[in-house]
Design goal:
- With 347 residues, the chain is an alpha/beta fold.
- The protein has eleven helices and eight strands.
- A hairpin with a 5-residue loop joins strand 2 and strand 3.
- The radius of gyration is 25 Å and the shape is globular.
Length: 347
């Protein structure tokens, strides 16, 4: 490839027509998107992170040592002579196409509705298993909200998601070997929708097989969506109080757990039973924002056809990050580059 000459390139741009300049701008924007992952890798290696020091001896003395096939800067340790790049010892260590992973992160965080693994694999030209591993790595890098994130008027409510065992082999194993593999605690969900069995509920009723999530938001756009064990006071207070500022005002639907939490912690609490405010409730105090957040979560989860409940906490955190305007896909890439590689990619 010939060496790039900025002066010659500027002279070529000066000779282009306005229509040709518009085409060049589009091409440059596409090239910039493909190179963003490499630029972030080099920036994180320059500023700090796991790749700022030698992964073998931990020494900080290093020199530049060429570039990788993707164009990222490569380093060499002055002590043990080991070489590494900005992806070494991070969650992107074994990702050979960081540009495709950046495109997947962009779709996950900014698309109106993220692509499924099959559709994303077709669009990016890779396998669906690779897309699944990348997606789990991206979701796993999303950290919970910091303490005292929610301030001002805070709205909180619970959301429900049906329990799912997608990917489980317990029904198949029981059919093959009933003696060594006991029967699962319930039938598969599709068995309850068959003719003559639609009226039959699972053991303990339908509510016993629902997973609970806590949704909380303030008027500044901060979102919290966390999976909780149940709708009791202990579970809700453990998820809500750490992320809620001490001087915040709480607005809920009047559930008894919120009443007890507000009374014990001396938090100003406004209960809107059925979404209706009383005569003493200011018009600025409502729960419409959190109800809209839960509605978007249901629409967000619908194309996934019920992800496994073991990944529900990660999916809810993903939805909260998507709904938070301050979080972009570049922030997700920085989190991946600042984290150590996981032993497995299943959340």
């Amino acid at each position: 490839m010939p060496r790039f000459d900025p002066a010659e390139f500027g002279h070529m741009l000066a000779c282009l027509t306005p229509q040709e300049l518009r085409q060049v701008e589009g091409l440059v924007a596409e090239a910039r998107e493909r190179a963003e992952a490499v630029l972030e890798i080099d920036a994180c290696a320059e500023m700090g992170g796991p790749a700022a020091s030698c992964p073998r001896c931990g020494g900080g003395a290093r020199v530049r040592w060429g570039r990788t096939r993707t164009g990222a800067q490569r380093w060499r340790c002055s002590g043990c002579r080991a070489t590494w790049s900005g992806r070494s010892d991070t969650s992107l260590a074994r990702v050979h196409r960081p540009d495709l992973m950046s495109a997947l992160a962009r779709d996950m965080m900014e698309a109106p509705q993220p692509l499924s693994c099959r559709r994303a694999a077709e669009a990016l030209g890779t396998s669906r298993d690779t897309i699944w591993r990348w997606r789990m790595a991206i979701i796993g890098a999303l950290a919970p909200e910091l303490d005292n994130t929610l301030s001002g008027i805070v709205e909180a409510d619970e959301a429900h998601q049906r329990e799912s065992r997608k990917g489980s082999r317990e029904w198949v194993r029981h059919q093959r070997d009933p003696a060594n593999h006991p029967a699962p605690p319930r039938l598969r969900w599709r068995d309850y929708r068959r003719r003559g069995a639609s009226w039959t509920a699972p053991p303990g009723g339908w509510r016993a097989w629902e997973k609970k999530l806590l949704a909380a938001t303030d008027r500044a756009g901060h979102r919290v969506f966390e999976a909780i064990a149940d709708a009791g006071q202990v579970a809700i207070s453990g998820a809500l109080l750490p992320v809620m500022a001490p001087d915040a005002v709480l607005c809920t639907d009047g559930h008894a757990s919120y009443e007890r939490i507000a009374k014990d912690e001396r938090i100003p609490h406004f209960a809107l039973n059925g979404g209706r405010r009383s005569k003493r409730t200011p018009r600025s105090h409502h729960i419409n924002t959190v109800n809209a957040l839960i509605g978007r979560f249901r629409a967000f989860m619908q194309p996934f056809c019920g992800p496994a409940s073991k990944n529900l906490a990660a999916y809810s955190r993903w939805h909260a990050a998507r709904d938070n305007a301050a979080t972009s896909y570049l922030d997700v890439l920085r989190l991946l580059l600042a984290s150590r590689p996981r032993t497995n990619t299943v959340c």
